[in-house]
# Entry
Amino acid sequence: MSIDTKIDTKTAPRLPAELVASSLFLLKRLGFAAKQRSLDEYERTGLGPYHHAVLTLLDEGVPETQAAIADSLGYDRGTLVGLLDELEERGLVERKRDPEDRRRHVVRLTADGKRTLGQLRALAARLENEFLAPLNAEQRASLHALLLELAEQHEPRCAPPTP
# Structure
């Protein structure tokens, strides 16, 4: 399902009030809009948000196995292999056999991967600033805090670490 993100707000038909009154409905619609805008922008780089997430995880400095990356990000292991193939073809990551277990591959970020990650971070920051432009800094902080609170319950990988 594609959500048109370039709707003219003056002439667009309104959604039913019952739907707009639902916070969950609004979260879903805004999620679709944010995702589509992101995909459109990332497509111009030849990479996607999923590639960005892999590079970000690897930038933490710990060489990761393919399985650990998939598990950390919640990706299907088969899908991850395809993402890593694409990143490796571009010279952004390298895979080597794990010397401790020859059945596994360890994945590392390359220097080119680090540079590309910097570009993707700038892209992500721009997208976030554009999407959240109607909110001031205090509202953005409040929204983020509320989303983190929801994440604790519904998406633990996104939740902040517990002290």
